[in-house]
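Escalation from tier 1.

The customer reports that the assembly of two entities below gives different structure tokens on two consecutive runs. Tier 1 could not reproduce it. I'm attaching the input and our single run for tier 2 to review.
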Amino acid sequence: MSSEHEDTPEAETEYQHAEDDGPQPEKHCGHGRGGMGEEVSRKEDKRFITGRGNYVDDIKKPDMLHCEIVRSPHAHARVKDIDGSRAEAMDDVVAVLTAEDLLEHDLATMPTLMDDTQDVLVNEKVKFQSQEVAAVIATDRYTAKDGAEKVEVDYEVLDPVVDAQDALDAEAPLIRDELDDQEDNHIFDWETGDKDATEAVFDAADVTIEEDMNYQRLHPAPIETCGAVADWDPGMDKMTVHMTSQAPHAHRTLFSQVSGIPEHKVRIVSPDVGGGFGNKVPIYPGYVVAAAASFVLEQPVKWVEERSENIQSTGFARDYDMTGELAATEDGVIEGVKVDVLANHGAYNAAAQPTKFPAGFFNIFTGSYDIEAAYGSLTAAFTNTAPGGVAYRCSFRVTEAVYLIERLVNVLADELDVDPAEIRRRNFIPSDAFPYESATGWNYDSGDYEKALDKALEMADYEHYREEQQRRIENDADKLLGIGISSFTEIVGAGPGEQCDIAGIEMFDSADIRVNPTGNAVLRIGVQTQGQGHETTFAQIVAEELGMDVDNISVEHGDTDTEPYGLGTYGSRSTPVAGAATAVAARKVRDKAKSIAANELEAAEEDIEWDRESGEFHVAGAPDRSITITEIAAGAYMNHPGGEEPGLEATNYYDPPEMTYPFGSYIVVVEVDRETGEVDFEKFVAVDDCGNRINPMIIEGQIHGGLAQGIATAMLEEVTYDDNGNVTGGDFMNYLLPTANEIPNFDTGHTVTPSPHHPIGAKGVGESPTVGSPPAIVNAVVDAMNHAGVSHVEMPMTPDVVWAALDDAGLAHKPAQNVEFEFDGASGSADD
Amino acid sequence: MTDEREITLTINGTEHTLEVEPRRLLVHAIREDLDMTGTHIGCDTGNCGACTILKDGEPIKSCLMFAAQADGAEILTVEGMEDLPEATDLHPLQEGFKAEHGLQCGYCTPGMLMAGKALLDENPDPDEETIRDAISGNLCRCTGYQNIVSSIEYAADELADRTATDGGAVTAEPGDGAGPSADDAATVCGQSDCCGGPDADLFERDYPTEGTDT
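Tier 1 run:
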């Protein structure tokens, strides 16, 4: 998985952090100017805590219209007629749009990120509940909604199919009958690894284990839903769309392709975005409808989803039904891994991942382990459910892969009666084996898995809890103790252009630094923040590389008119790709600064040295003949060296030579209530290694948030459907985000294993906790019941699910006999 | 179009008179009619708390109340926090969220600040469990809540320090929209975990709790 790069800069790891004592900026990094490793407080905070943020729904333009979308109540139905006349007759309703209107402008369909074609408004047939059927444009939000209720749609209801396995049945209703060569609901088959070699390993193995597991359908559910304000300027022939976008440049290119408006006449602005988590990577019909309406009506048009629209129609995540197998020696050395997956992709193939990876990076399923042979196969199916398969805080199906291998390793440990920590230790890729090529072809950059596990075990007081667990079993205690481990490896930073693209565009990223005459600087980046703190961390990279104070650097992002082209923020790619671009651009500035320094100090350029500690340039051997970047900036504009261009700026487009591989070990201790099936978190330890660290405070914040989402996955969340295709978990009443009462405090720790190929040795961190924590939590709950033969519990592990597992294993305790409940005068005991 | 009616809302100390349809939600009146967009909308069903404001000192979800129901009310939104008597440059809660990294995308933050303000007005020295209960009607997808709890603890400590320094001079005054007052009519729905999230039992009130007819 490598590509040729002539100008890949060598990694500089001279400011690697102390590994065990946490960052000590004054000693090891940052140099007190807010560079690498300093806990710089966030530049973006002030506008958010004072109510001055500017999210899409905050945007108000003169004569702005509002768009409300009419959605199908049916999951599968032919649209026989749409009558918008009653809506159109309303005062203040400006237009009712249907597929017919969009066809006139060639906007009736749009490409998905996996090159499928999705109706913007349903042309003939509804394929999932809440699909977009018509749009009402009115002068205000309330009237648009009134109008939508007056649009009459005549449906011929068809039998839906919701389950992926059912969808592949020969008798199943055909969902995509508009596609010429589509005769069933099968989308694609995919395989990875060496089937024959893996079968041979399994045939000869001492031990094999197998486990079925479902990674349920989730929704990223950022607290801000998706929305847009489209504004066609007929005077400039220019379309400006403010939208909730995690990838404004890619969206500009797609918008241009879909609309036919030349790309230089399309401006996408991603203003403040209230969380993304992968939900805001795809393009949705609402954006296109708003833009089409603005183009036709020549007025700005706002479209903002309600929560139920967000969950029911925009990109879901996961929905992988997996069977995994391991082959091992009797000593627990894993020799082979096999996996078979059935993937529910919904009504369109609209997964969000690099186009050459239809199953994303799922083939990272060998995990942190040195496994000789691996084979995976996957079948994807259309169903009458919302389209999706987005990378929800995940680098393209890595979450599913990590869940699979970390669960399987525990099942093997159970089978062999080996401690789950010990079995991991026996199988880790050794720290001296990097760079390591996995059986499925990935080239891991660096890792020290045992060190992270050891640290986590120590932080968790592992042995103590193992003893306590045994004590409770012996005492038949009401609350069982479970201890779960996950030693995950992520693959992030997509990615090398030879392998990775979105709609054909290689997944590089970019940075542009301009140092002003007065010595401060503006950094423009091709990635965009939805809360990750780019305005701070990217300024820290520049502060580190140019010896500037972080306060003197502004970071701009999210506007395609001013920022260099980039592929956006998802897949933990901002730091690995745009962070690298920023460091390289800063080093280019530094190179030019040397010649200016030489001119100012009247010395030869080769005699000028840059000192990272002081952030100054000085003449070799004469440290007092020094000059700062501020003085150099003045020189660049007011006294520039002859033969050189004035000014002090540089741009870098960075094509990463490899992915990066963050890792970590999480240990979760839970109490399982044998009466109620409730699970309480007793201890939650997370040790992460994301290479060199830019801002420990922000990293810890990312870890906390990701762990909370991991708990949400393991314990609460699922988008559910009934057999008729009705979404039964499609709003915040039924799709249960955890509150402060469900999330415990976390103990975080870290090790530092820099990426050898990244200019600042960083790897990316935002997704590790969401990827790594669900198996740790499930392992913990299973571990509490394992002594009675429980080998697996499906997510979400709600109390009823856990109680059923307890009951099946004969572990359930009945409530205390003296508890009585009163119901309307009639009394009954709880064990009725 | 339904008939509009004239209402008066005193927001952050400034009186606004506006014409609203009876069905217009308070959050839309604040955001769209009065252009104070710091208060957000995240779910439309009263679950997320992004729209939390203080109405006559009580935390309520402004997406669950009609603007007309708030006629005559004193309202505090995030935009008013810097002008509260206990604020210096920023309010201690705002300082706390910044110092403790209590926010990431910032979307839930105004609602969290309001929930925190309501809590500290009632209980200046809450323990962690009380804080978690008080913000349990406000969803955050980014932070995992731990730093939000720390942010509110930071503010409680800061306010306590100032009170000690100033001999208790800096507190919310009745009628300034900053805290509950026996003179203000308060509207609460009476349900636990509904209006503004905090468990209603947490707040022992000595002022009227019945709804104001409008």
